[in-house]
Amino acid sequence: MTNYNEEVATPLGEGFVQVRGTPFDLNGSPFLFNGFNSYWMMNVATEPADRNKVSDVFREAFAAGLSLCRMWAFSDGGDHALQISPGVYDELVFHRRKADQYVQWARNAGETVDGDDDFYTNAVVKGYYRRHVQEVLTRVNAITGIAYRDDPTVMAWELMNEPRCQVDYSGNTINEWVQGMAPYFNKHLLAVGMEGFYGDSIPDRKQYDPGYQFGTDFIRSNLVEEIDFGTIHAYPDVCHLEDSRTIIGKPLVSTEFGKSKKDPHYSLDVRDSYMNAVYVDIYDLARNGGAFRGGLVWQILAEWMDFYDDGYKILLLLEPSTNSVIAQQLSKVAALEHTL
Predict the structure, then answer these.
(1) Of the residues 60, 158, 195, 256, which is catalytic?
(2) Least crowded by CB within 10 Å, which of 68, 271, 272, 317?
């Protein structure tokens, strides 16, 4: 297994983001980022009347200084599906975490499956997943003429969003699945997509996830050779930061953080303070050689998108104080990149 603490960049092409120990690297220079989540983009783009919302969010996010967008590359079965059935795709959706659908397809095909967690172990289901990965990576963008696997606009892929396994809390099942699936991604950076929960590899770390058992192992799965950086969904604690730097030796990204309007003590000021605290940590730790290298706020929407509002909605044009918090971080990070 490669020693990821060595300051050796992964062998990608010019223009691709790489890892160099715990920092990210772009064309030989440090790469820090502020990003955002808009998981809904592919679904909304299927409706011609709504496609302007995608453009609006990109325009507003870029103006605020957000340089990276995290979105879904799957929509399996149901309305506006990308993958209608195993291996059958709607090209119109291409122009614009659903593990249970894969299991249901296998069941419909006569396969014996016990439950949704067979997603990680059943050979037929894993074949469906690998076929989907191949289809997405080799698909040629109709606008640019570049296959997604060759496009440096894509920084990274996640194996899935928030993997969980209720039949095996040790983390073994998901880790074996990660080891089996990660080699199918061979050019861009790759993350598992985990929330950050600990497993059996370092049992005492479980005390930092009180009451949570989701069958993942933050340490072991992020040590898989093909995994380039760790992810956490929330505000990382000291253990995640130190473990990423000293044990895993790879960058850490908070791929989902935010404040819900449904929280009893929510206010716009509270949310802005929380976002600023995350940004300050990213800046300070990056400046001092830490592993925390970026954050993606959850989530940015356009106006009139209440269907997708889970309480975390940010409307950049209507919330100038939040816009200001993001812009201040952009200025600090841009200056820091020139000194690292």
Answers:
(1) 256
(2) 317
**Residue 336, exposed/middle/buried by CB under 10 A (0-12, 13-18, 19+)?**
middle
- The whole-model pTM stands at 0.85
Identify the active-site residue in 135, 162, 242, 319. 162
Average confidence score pLDDT of the chain: 84
Summarised one tens digit per residue, pLDDT across range 172-187 is 999 999 999 999 887 8
pLDDT tens track for 59-117:
999 988 898 999 886 544 445 444 444 544 444 333 334 566 667 777 777 777 788 88
- Burial of 168 per CB tally in 10 Å (0-12, 13-18, 19+): middle
Active site residue 242: no
Residues of the chain with pLDDT > 90: what percent?
A: 42
Whole-angstrom distance, CA of residue 63 vs CA of residue 81: 31
> Domains of the chain by range and CATH?
17-69+154-174+187-337 (3.20.20.80)
Per DSSP, which regions of the chain are E strands? 17-19, 24-26, 29-30, 33-37, 68-70, 83-85, 88-89, 156-158, 189-191, 230-233, 252-257, 292-297
Beta bridge partners of 17: 26
Cβ count near 38 (within 10 Å) = 25
Active site residue 176: no
Label each residue of 192-248 as H, E or C: CCCCCCCCCCCHHHHHHCCCCCCCCCHHHHHCCCCCCCEEEECCCCHHHHHHHHHHH
